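Write out the 3D structure for:
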Amino acid sequence: MANLHLLDTYVGLLLVYLAFGFPIEVLLLRSFFNQVPRELDEAARVDGLGAFGRLFRIFLPLSKPILAALFILDFVSTWNEFQIALVLMQSRNMFTLPLGLLQFQEGYGGQFPLMASAVLMASAPAIIVYVFLQRYFVAGLTAGAVRG
């Protein structure tokens, strides 16, 4: 990142997060799409749908559960990630939320009501995302599971 001049930038941090998240996403999506019957694709071709039509009218609606599960997993893991951000982010104004909480703890560590409210505010977005997508979460994880 230093050679690419991406230290202390959100772009550099995003590239590292993508590099760590991409392999598991590909494996789960591949497993999910291998379970989709090929007859659906063949029927759509016979009906005259092109590649984009098949993607947007058949495969994306079918993949809502796995996409929601992947979104929740990636969002929570990125939202709570600490170590990579600690290494890549150097200035305080570029800190991510976990780094900001560490800095907040250094200043207000003995005041437990302030710490509790800071942790609650930091975890609220992840909880809200999960609440809105929870109906897809279990279905998406089981849909992407490898069958034997």
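The chain has one domain: 10-143.
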